[in-house]
């Protein structure tokens, strides 16, 4: 097992300097020196003394939360739950918006570590990018090795605790509902291709299609940003290519609301001519006209669970805890059987 002296020797510094960097001492050091020491920690898999870590980090109060965009209702609800638990524990929450830029996500992890955040919570979707995933995981492992706690929401290939919503199962519920109502011409308003959330929800839809003897061809799926404008544009593209569609499955509620707006603009009755189903059950879903049939995820509770995991004392052997969150179908006015003769 590597010792502090081994780390100092590998980094070419004194043990005292290595100790200050590993334990988050406020004494300033150059970025290059810090990177050398932390790289040595990662290479040697050095595990600091837990008691010394606790003494060194008792002054930490901030928790960093990295989201794609806190103005997105999905992340706003998750953040509400995160902040509730943080407030109960007397913690300051630092919100970092990446706007789905992986490089910015890496930069925020470095900034939060440099500013000695007590924990880092990744609240956005994982990416289908092997190099990025490897780099981010390495940075998080170094952060953990120096006493930080990590929790993620969603499917990530990263170290730390995880709160995992049932995205695949939710997608299956959407498909089972629409095919069960009798729809055979279903279009999908999907999120960005490179996000694991999109992949998982789409996988559930495809599983339901197979079970009902259906399939989704390439022309039935349009990928766009997870936002209202993206939903409207994707719906327009679907209808222009396949005007005979009788149902649209949107992979989040913001996109579904964009779909409803586009259909209203074109004078298409919902659900009389086309049914629309969303995903997430954000607060506005019940208030649009018609009220949106959707998949409910307990977003605020997901945030609360992630913060609770991030703030709890380390488990023996640093065993990560995984909590799965159920998805539930909520039927409202935007869905129904296909029009007769369709």
TrEMBL record:
Ranges for domain HTH lacI-type come to: 2-57
PROSITE patterns listed in its UniProt record: HTH_LACI_1, HTH_LACI_2
Which superkingdom is the protein from? Bacteria
One GO MF term attached to the UniProt entry: DNA binding
- Xref: CDD domains: HTH_LacI, PBP1_LacI_sugar_binding-like
InterPro entries in the cross-refs: HTH_LacI, LacI/GalR-like_sensor, Lambda_DNA-bd_dom_sf, Peripla_BP_I
- What protein name does the entry list? LacI family DNA-binding transcriptional regulator
Q: Please tell me the species this chain comes from.
A: Plantactinospora alkalitolerans
Q: Which Pfam families match?
A: LacI, Peripla_BP_3
This protein's UniProt keywords:
DNA-binding, Transcription, Transcription regulation
């Amino acid at each position: 097992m590597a010792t502090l002296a081994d780390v100092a020797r590998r980094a070419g510094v004194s043990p005292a300097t290595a100790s200050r960097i590993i334990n988050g001492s406020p004494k300033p050091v150059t970025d290059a020196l810090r990177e050398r020491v932390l790289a040595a920690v990662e290479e040697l898999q050095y595990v600091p003394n837990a008691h010394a870590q606790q003494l060194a980090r008792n002054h930490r109060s901030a928790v960093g939360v990295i989201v794609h965009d806190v103005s997105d209702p999905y992340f706003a609800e998750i953040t509400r739950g995160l902040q509730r638990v943080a407030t109960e524990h007397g913690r300051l929450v630092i919100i970092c918006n990446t706007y789905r830029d992986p490089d910015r996500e890496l930069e925020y992890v470095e900034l939060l570590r440099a500013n000695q955040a007590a924990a880092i919570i990744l609240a956005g979707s994982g990416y289908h990018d092997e190099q990025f995933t490897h780099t981010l995981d390495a940075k998080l492992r170094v952060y953990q090795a120096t006493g930080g706690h990590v929790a993620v929401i969603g499917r990530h290939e990263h170290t730390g605790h995880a709160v995992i919503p049932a995205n695949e199962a939710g997608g299956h519920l959407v498909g089972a509902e629409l095919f069960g109502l009798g729809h055979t011409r279903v279009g999908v308003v999907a999120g960005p291709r490179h996000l694991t959330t999109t992949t998982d929800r789409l996988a559930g839809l495809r599983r339901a299609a197979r079970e009902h003897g259906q399939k989704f061809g390439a022309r039935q799926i349009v990928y766009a940003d997870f936002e209202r404008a993206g939903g409207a544009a994707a719906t327009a593209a679907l209808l222009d290519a396949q005007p005979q569609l009788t149902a649209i499955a949107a992979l989040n509620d913001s996109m579904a609301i964009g779909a409803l707006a586009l259909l209203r603009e074109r004078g298409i009755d919902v659900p009389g001519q086309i049914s629309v189903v969303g995903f997430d059950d954000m607060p506005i879903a019940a208030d649009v006209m018609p009220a949106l049939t959707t998949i409910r995820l307990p977003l605020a509770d997901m945030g609360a669970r992630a913060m609770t995991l991030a703030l709890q004392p380390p488990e023996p052997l640093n065993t990560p805890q995984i909590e799965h969150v159920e998805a539930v179908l909520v039927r409202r006015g935007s869905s129904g059987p296909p029009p007769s003769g369709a």
